[in-house]
Design goal:
This protein has 230 residues and is α/β, with parallel strands linked by helices. Helices cover 40% and strands 18% of the residues. The chain has a 6-stranded mixed sheet, with helices on both faces. A two-stranded antiparallel ribbon has the order 2-3.
Length: 230
């Protein structure tokens, strides 16, 4: 039977309708992507980049200390302390206000430390003087350094010493506790040395007995210049 024009037109339209339907249909599952996948990956890489940027100063400073050395390849005047000796969390000291604090709470700046009895003999006064002058010569960088005198007894500090070093933090500390943390050279004792602690709270350098203050200044200047921490 011959189809009417309308029927023929309908038959010819069907393939087109099918193709159009496929074009308008749902995208095949193989072409689908998890929503937000790209954003999640970008966020992860962003977080990793931020972490690396934040860690870079610390990584750089330790690379400088322990690999290329703070003197740019030559031996430093002070002895580098390896492995790291962080300030013990149990090391509690007493401030001039009579309040106990953890020495570790001083982290955040470079600490230059001397240990002596409160009477402060000539050798003690000489170390405090060197520390004061070394800090003063750092000009705009001086605020990155805190000078600390750990006193091994609670006796009164002589007025002449108290007045000469008002910017030196003075704490009473247990001598055995301090000795357990700070190492000494062979043939020396704790009171012979000046120590450097980095802003992360790690003991990193010890200067010798009867030190040359100009050489200490050179080491300290290079530490500050080669590190952005503290």
């Amino acid at each position: 039977m011959q189809k009417s024009p309308s029927q023929a037109s309908s038959d010819h339209a069907q393939p087109g309708n099918t193709q159009s339907g496929q074009q308008r249909g749902t995208t095949p599952a193989s072409d689908q992507r998890a929503p937000g996948g790209g954003s999640w990956k970008r966020g992860r890489w962003t977080m990793l980049l931020i972490a690396l940027i934040c860690a870079a100063p610390v990584i750089g400073s330790y690379f400088t200390y322990y690999v290329i050395k703070p003197t740019g390849g030559t031996t430093s005047y002070g002895k580098l302390i390896e492995p790291q000796r962080p300030i013990p969390d149990t090391l509690v000291v007493t401030g001039e206000d009579g309040k106990p604090i953890k020495l570790a709470s001083m982290r955040g700046r470079w600490l230059m430390i001397s240990v002596d009895g409160s009477a402060c003999d000539k050798a003690c006064a000489t170390k405090l003087y060197f520390m004061r002058q070394i800090r003063a010569t750092q000009a705009g960088e001086r605020e990155r350094i805190v000078n600390i005198w750990l006193r091994t007894d609670a006796s009164k500090v002589p007025d002449v010493i108290e007045n000469a070093y008002p910017d030196t933090e003075k704490f009473v500390a247990s001598a055995p506790d301090v000795a357990a943390w700070l190492p000494v050279d062979d043939g020396t004792q704790l009171t012979d040395h000046i120590y450097m602690v980095d802003p992360n709270g790690n003991l990193m350098m010890r200067f010798p007995k009867d030190p040359n203050p100009s050489k200490i200044k050179g080491d300290v200047s290079k530490l500050l210049r080669n590190s952005s921490i503290g």
